[in-house]
Every structure is written in C-alpha cells, then in structure tokens.
C-alpha cells in the first residue's frame, strides 16, 4: 500500500545504485514491500554460514560491519545507502560473511522475490549486480558516489588498507576539479587556488587537460620574478599532463608520482590526455589513502566542509589510536596527539556551525570542553560535556544575545552528535540554557556553588572546573578562572567539601583485596574502571591543584606532575599517581577499542593474570592519595 | 424487562465481534513475538467533544521490524473543520487523498488493531479521540493495552538532582534526541514512524535494567 513512509523510503533509495536506474513507479512499488529493521549497536544481522534471509539490506542510518573468518576481521563497513547480503541470495548459497551493527542502525530489508524481476528486466540493474559480484565489492560505484557526498575531502578509509592489498585498491581522488583556460592570468590562478584550498590547477581546453600548474610552478616562475604576475597560464603550465584512468591503484599512483617526480596526477575518462578530465589526484590524497598520519588527518579536518566528512576522518583517528596502542607508543604522547585531533574536529564543527548562522556572532564567546574532554583525557568517543560563556552585554540585550548563542550551541551539539559524540544524558551541554551563560551569569553561578557547597553543587563544580577552551576568546576563560580562585580563597570550606566529594567514590577492592564488581544492572559482574579507579585520581588532582591556584593544567596526569614539582616532599606519591592515571587510561582505551564502547566497564573474568596485577598495583596508589587528601583538608568522618 | 439481562452483543457489527474475540486469546508475553501497533491521529483540534479525526496513521511492529505492506493510512471525511489546525497538519477539508467515512475508518482500524499493544506519543489523546469516534458510531471503547512514548522516554533519563525532568516531552524533542528525520512531521503516518523509531530506541536504552519484558513496559508507560 502506497503511503507517506513508503514514499520516503523510495525517496531515499533513488539516490543509490542500483535503485537510481529504476523508474519512480517501480521504485514506489518496491518500497511498499520493504521492512524497516532497527538494530541495536553490536547486534547481529546474520552470521557467517547462516542460511540466507528472504531479504537483502540497504543501510538507511548507522553503519554495519561485515566480518569474516575466525578472527572476525572487518572486511567492509557499510554506510548510508550501501547494500549488503545480496550476493548469497542471487547465488543461492549461505552467507560468506557475518554482518553486525557497528552503530545503532536502521536498515531497509528488501524482499528478494520482489526485487529479482527488476534485476532481470532492467539491464542497468543487472549490469550493476554482475559488476559488483565480479569485482567482489559490495558496490562498484560506491567510490564515485561517495565523491558526491564528500567532495571536499577525499574519503579516508575507515579501515586503513592492509598493506598487502595496496596494489589492488583503487585510490580516491578529488572530483571537484579546479580548472582554468590557457589564457587565465597567473594572479587569477593563484587567487582561485587559495580560495579553493588546492595545491594545483588544471589547465583545460574543451574539458581535456592540456597542462597543470602547481604551487611549485607558481613559486619557480612568478615569485622568482622570471615571469610577471599577469602571465597567461599557457606560459607557465607544465605539459603534457600525466594522466591515468580512475582504476589506478594506490601503489600505481605512488610509483607514477615517483617516476616522474610530480605531485599531481590527472584522472581522465579513458586514461589518455585526449579525454575529459574527471579528477585530480595529489600526493596528499595518496597519503590520506594510507591514512595513518596525524598531520594528514589534521589537514583533512581543516579542509572538511561537511560534518559528514569529519565523521569519516574520526574513523581514521580511531584506527590511528589502535595503531599507537599496538605499537606501544607512550600513552602520554598518544593522548596528546589524539586529543589534538579530537580538538581539531570540534573546532572545525564550530567553524562550520558559525558559517551556518545567518549573522555573525554579536559578542565574543568561548566554547568550553568539560569533564574528560576538558582534561584532554578523552581517547574514545563518549558523551558530550560542554558549555558556553559569552561576553557581558547590557541587560536589554541579554535575551537576544543568549538566543543567538543558544542557537549556535544547538548546531554545534548536533554536529558533535553527528560525528559520534552522544548527547549528555544529564543535559550538561551548551544548548541547555543553564550551561550557556554570560560571563557575569557564570560568575554568579560559580559563586553560588562555592558558597553553598551541597552535594549537587560539589558535583556540578567537579564537572565544570575541568573546563578547557576549545574555541573562542581566551580572556573570557581566564577571567572565569581568576574568579574561581578568588572565591575559593574567600570560602576555604569549599575545599573541604570538594575533598570529601573526592573521597566518596566506591572502593576498588574488598576486604580480601578482590576486585569489587557491580552487583546489578546492565554491567553486572564487571568492574567499573571509571568510577572505582579513574575518578578518585581525577577528583584528588582537581582539589589539590585548585588549592594551589594553578590554572590551565587540566590533564590529571600533568596535574600530578605539577604537584610533585610544587611539593617536593610528596614527589614520590604524586609521581606514582601520575603514572597510575596514565596506566588506567591506557587500560580503559584498550578495552574500549576492543569492544567498540567507552571502555568504562571491564569484564574481570576476561582479564589476564598480568592485567589484574597491573590493575591492582594502581589501587595502592589510589588509597594513598585518598589518605593524603583526607588529612590535608581535614575531612572528618562525619562528613564522609 | 428480560431485555435488560440479555447481552446486547448482537447489536454490534461483525468486525467488532471479531475484534473483541481476538482478546480472548492469551496475550503474548514475549517481547520478540508481540505485535505493537504504533499510531498517530491528526485531528481538527484538541477538544475531545467537538474536534474530529482527519487522518489515522498506523504501523505494525513485530520484534524490531516494521513491514511497510502492513501499514494503515486513513483519511476521513469530516463535517467539522478547523482552519487553525489545518495550518499545522496541512489537511484541507476536501483536499487530496481519497476519503472514507468515520464508520468505515473505524472498521478498518479495528481490523488492523486486533489485540495488539498500541504505542503512541501522548497516547491518551489519540485513544480518547478514537474512543469518541467509536462512540459516535455506536461502538464500545478500545480494549487494547497501550504505551505512551512520552512516559517511556522519561524513564530513560537520568535520575539526578542536577537535572530536572520536564513534565512532558514533545515528539519534536524525541526526534531531535534520537536523530530521526522530521520531514514527515505532522502527517499521521510520519508521526507514527517517528514514534516507532523512538519507541525502539527507548527500548534499547531501557534494557540497561536487565531483560525487558512487556510487563515492565506496560508498568512504565
């Protein structure tokens, strides 16, 4: 039966092959028979060797990982619009791979008996299927299609290519061609290259490439004074252009560039210079395809014009993190690099959100990362915790200004959500009017917390006081920090409450030194690494560093290092804490990557003996630092 | 006088008896097997007495699957018309899709519902509107159990003093929270679809408290 929803399904499908070649009427008929399937994260759609379902699937939202073999290595990641589970249906065999929802996903299940007649009737559909089966990819056109979605940023492989198959993988090149004609002036060329943020400009005639001008050519010919700035393109271009067809593999591209000592290749329709230019491939694209270099990733982030492309890059960041951990790169360095990259993602999202606003911001503002992100300890994606502070405005302007900043915050929160940061379940986000305040309003709120330190106020301050500026005006943030130090000095009782808050986390071990596990709920029988081990350290570091009025050191490990420097007599314990923090963080990250979650809950029975010993060793340190805090701030038993 | 004690069942049309009979079966306890009907109504307004249903959209949900060939979208012929609310749902008095009488719509709805559990956002409103329509056509009230996604959603939220829950959450808020497209908002079936996906996402978030049973859901919302 035709209805609003089947209509919407047809609307979605018509953007993706092979459905794009079906007529509207056929597509609508097909859509009416579809079943919409919801899959929780990590739930199985089918297992290897299962009998085929009567449907094949198209991803509408989310992502599905196809895995194979006993090691369950990821063979392919299906995104929006990708088809999977079709081949076994056509070949009438069992599934050759397993499919699992990598994220919470919505799938369209398309009944094969309804679809098959179209495949037989419609040559284009049939060809798509033959080509897709022959090339053994799920979608031979996916690359050219992705190009449309992410044309600014070449698609970065979420799963970095296996070095063994580099020879076989075709590269992703930029499809948005920046071209000029033989008579364009050098000045115009340079201007447009800056504008489009590209390193090379193709000179075309009748859409065919006749030459190329790169940054280097401009430097050698114009900047040196050899030619005037008004020189025409044909005078300085390099010609002929080295051309290839789009089936060029990564290895081929690398070799071609090395052989001719050039940084750009031109992709043409049939691979010769006598056909239409369809894209350009730079050394950068090749590096991106190899995908494991932070510098390349940063560049890709800063170039991203769409939130969707940042999401792709985030997958590479996760992969990079995995590599670092596998290679045992010091966690200190790993944390720095990954936080830097995460920060760049957030910054880019803020920039994109600002562009989306109808007007420029009426006041200066600062975006604050709170919690683990503020402490630069966030390696895996967790929930969002953030806030906004903006310049004081006259009272009659306050509502209007708040409205603007709130709107902006909402866009940013949504953008962060889209790249994988879940909304904060307690609404501690800048789009919440309580977390989006002017400087004076924040000062008032903070004073209230410090002067009336009840349980809630202490909890709120422990989340907020780890803030770190991600974007915006740094003076606003400095003023806020000053205010906190001044107020806490006036009301030292606050330290006592903050310290007692720091001691309230449940103990990691029981009487017999056994690890204590959760007794009920979703994570029954697993160890809460965050609450029982990391938080006591984080909380202790916060109250100690605050009492020393040290600002702009946010990471827990670094705070302990600073404390060791400030109090040489306690150096040993503080350094032990710093070490323990890093060890636990690494522990958490490894487990998070393994299970594709936040790594907070650890299944004790899955740990090796060595891991258990390592974990327990940190607990002694936790106990010692808690005693130090308890004595220093005179937290009496009454308060605890 | 004897009439008083005789059951009046015979006065009801066959489709009502069929509907009623479906409740004689033992209700399904397994969340995986039970059929939910996610529905939404577009009405001329919010007055139970004077306003009328213009459109009913309903989707059938079994396990985590919504089969589109088992969905219902009914446009009703109504004498009462409210120009103000038409601005929201865009349904004109005589516009577009083919319309059926209220009694025919009730027949189709009951045949579609059977003993399934109804899921709706602010369910009381939709169910009361439908009950009024049934009443006008000489039929008793709906017998289905029902769930309200507004109440269920609240159960997924954190219990914390630092953060105050609202009394009500709109379907718009749920769509934003769960990243569901609002393109078809304010069409009955479009809203039903948003409600269905929200319901599934709520269920997966509630699972945190152990295996979720139908009984638990009914208790919550």
UniProtKB/TrEMBL annotation, chain A:
Span of domain CBS: 173-229, 237-296
Residue ranges occupied by any Cyclic nucleotide-binding domain in the UniProt entry: 18-136
Gene Ontology molecular-function annotations: [protein-PII] uridylyltransferase activity
Domain of life: Bacteria
Record keywords, A-Z: CBS domain
PROSITE patterns (UniProt xref): CBS (PS51371), CNMP_BINDING_3 (PS50042)
Name of the protein described by the UniProt record: CBS domain-containing protein
UniProtKB/TrEMBL annotation, chain B:
A biological-process GO annotation: DNA replication
SMART domains tied to this protein: EXOIII
InterPro entries listed in its UniProt record: DnaQ, Ribonucl_H, RNaseH-like_sf, RNaseH_sf
The keyword Transmembrane helix appears for this protein: no
Domain Exonuclease: 35-208
Subunit structure, interactors included: DNA polymerase III contains a core (composed of alpha, epsilon and theta chains) that associates with a tau subunit. This core dimerizes to form the POLIII' complex. PolIII' associates with the gamma complex (composed of gamma, delta, delta', psi and chi chains) and with the beta chain to form the complete DNA polymerase III complex.
Keyword Nuclease annotated: yes
A GO molecular-function annotation: 3'-5' exonuclease activity
Role: DNA polymerase III is a complex, multichain enzyme responsible for most of the replicative synthesis in bacteria. The epsilon subunit contain the editing function and is a proofreading 3'-5' exonuclease.
SUPFAM superfamilies: Ribonuclease H-like
GO cellular component: cytosol
One Pfam family named in its UniProt record: RNase_T
NCBIfam families found in the cross-reference section: dnaq
Keywords assigned: Exonuclease, Hydrolase, Nuclease
Descriptive protein name: DNA polymerase-3 subunit epsilon
Domain of life: Bacteria
Organism listed in the record: Arenibacter palladensis
């Amino acid at each position: 039966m035709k209805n609003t929803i089947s209509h919407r399904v047809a609307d979605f499908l018509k953007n993706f092959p092979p459905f794009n070649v079906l007529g509207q009427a056929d597509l609508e008929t097909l859509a009416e028979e579809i079943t919409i399937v919801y899959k929780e994260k990590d739930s199985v759609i089918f297992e290897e060797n299962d009998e085929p379902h009567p449907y094949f699937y198209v991803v509408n939202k989310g992502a599905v990982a196809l895995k194979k073999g006993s090691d369950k290595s990821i063979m392919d990641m299906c995104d929006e619009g990708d088809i999977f589970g079709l081949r076994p249906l056509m070949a009438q065999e069992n599934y050759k791979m397993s499919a699992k929802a990598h994220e919470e996903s919505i799938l369209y299940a398309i009944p094969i008996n309804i679809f098959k007649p179209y495949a037989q009737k419609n040559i284009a559909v049939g060809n798509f299927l033959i080509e897709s089966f022959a090339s053994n990819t799920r979608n031979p056109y996916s690359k050219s299609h992705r190009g449309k979605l992410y044309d600014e940023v070449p698609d970065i492989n979420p799963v970095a290519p296996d070095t063994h198959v580099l020879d076989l993988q075709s590269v992703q090149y930029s499809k948005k061609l920046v071209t000029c004609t033989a008579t364009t002036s050098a000045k115009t060329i340079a201007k447009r290259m800056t504008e489009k943020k590209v390193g090379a400009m193709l000179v075309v005639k009748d859409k065919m490439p006749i030459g190329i001008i790169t940054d280097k050519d401009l430097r050698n010919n114009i900047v040196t004074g050899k030619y005037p700035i008004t020189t025409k393109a044909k005078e300085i271009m390099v010609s002929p252009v080295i051309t290839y067809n789009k089936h060029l593999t990564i290895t081929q591209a690398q070799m071609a560039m090395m052989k001719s000592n050039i940084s750009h290749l031109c992709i043409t329709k049939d691979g010769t210079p006598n056909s239409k230019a369809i894209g350009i491939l730079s050394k950068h694209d090749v590096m991106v395809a190899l995908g494991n270099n932070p510098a390349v990733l940063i560049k890709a982030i800063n170039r991203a014009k769409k939130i969707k492309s940042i999401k792709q890059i985030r997958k590479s960041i996760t992969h990079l993190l995995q590599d670092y951990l596998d290679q045992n790169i010091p966690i200190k360095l790993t944390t720095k690099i990954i936080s830097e990259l995460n920060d760049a993602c957030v910054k880019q999202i803020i920039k994109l959100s600002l562009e989306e606003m109808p007007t420029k911001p009426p006041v200066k503002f600062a975006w604050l990362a709170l919690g683990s992100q503020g402490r630069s300890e966030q390696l895996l994606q967790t929930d969002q915790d953030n806030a906004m502070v903006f310049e004081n405005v006259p009272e009659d302007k306050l509502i209007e200004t708040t409205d603007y900043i709130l709107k902006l915050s909402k866009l940013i929160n949504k953008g962060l959500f889209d790249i994988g940061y879940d909304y904060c379940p307690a609404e501690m986000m800048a789009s919440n009017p309580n977390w989006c305040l002017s400087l004076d309003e924040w000062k008032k709120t903070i004073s209230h917390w410090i002067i009336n330190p009840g349980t809630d106020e202490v909890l709120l301050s422990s989340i907020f006081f780890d803030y770190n500026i991600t974007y915006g005006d740094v003076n606003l943030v400095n003023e806020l920090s000053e205010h906190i130090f001044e107020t806490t000095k006036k009301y030292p009782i606050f330290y006592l409450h903050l310290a007692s808050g720091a001691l309230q986390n449940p103990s990691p071990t029981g009487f017999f030194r056994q690890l204590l596990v959760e007794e009920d709920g979703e994570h029954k029988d697993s160890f809460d690494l965050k609450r029982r081990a990391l938080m006591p350290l984080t909380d202790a570091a916060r109250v100690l560093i605050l009492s020393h009025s040290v600002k702009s050191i946010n990471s827990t490990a670094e705070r302990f290092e600073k404390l060791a420097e400030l109090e040489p007599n306690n150096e040993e314990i503080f350094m032990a804490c710093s070490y323990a923090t890093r060890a636990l963080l690494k522990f958490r990250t490894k487990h998070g990557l393994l299970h594709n979650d936040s790594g907070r809950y650890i299944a004790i029975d899955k740990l090796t003996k060595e891991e258990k010993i390592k974990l327990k060793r940190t607990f002694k340190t936790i106990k010692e630092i808690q005693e130090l805090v308890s004595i220093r701030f005179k937290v009496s038993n009454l308060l605890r | 006088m004897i009439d008083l004690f005789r059951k009046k069942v015979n006065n009801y049309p066959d489709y009502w008896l069929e509907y009623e009979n479906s409740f004689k079966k033992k209700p399904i306890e397994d969340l995986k097997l039970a059929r939910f009907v996610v529905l939404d109504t577009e009405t001329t307004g919010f007055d139970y007495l004077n306003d009328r249903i213009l459109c009913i959209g309903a989707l059938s949900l079994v396990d985590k699957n919504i089969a589109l060939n088992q969905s219902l979208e009914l446009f009703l012929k109504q004498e009462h018309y409210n120009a103000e609310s038409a601005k929201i749902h865009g349904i004109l008095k005589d516009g577009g899709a083919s319309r059926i009488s209220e009694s025919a719509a009730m027949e189709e709805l009951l045949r579609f519902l059977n003993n399934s559990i109804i899921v709706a956002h602010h369910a009381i409103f939709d169910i009361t509107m439908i009950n009024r329509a049934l009443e006008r056509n000489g039929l008793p009230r709906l017998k289905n159990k029902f769930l309200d996604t507004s109440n269920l959603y609240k159960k997924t939220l954190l219990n914390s003093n630092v953060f105050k829950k609202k009394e009500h959450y709109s379907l718009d808020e749920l769509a934003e929270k769960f990243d569901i497209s609002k393109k078809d908002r304010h069409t009955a079936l479009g809203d039903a679809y948003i409600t269905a996906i929200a319901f599934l996402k709520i269920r997966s978030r509630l699972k945190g408290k152990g295996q979720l049973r139908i009984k638990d859901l009914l208790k919550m919302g």
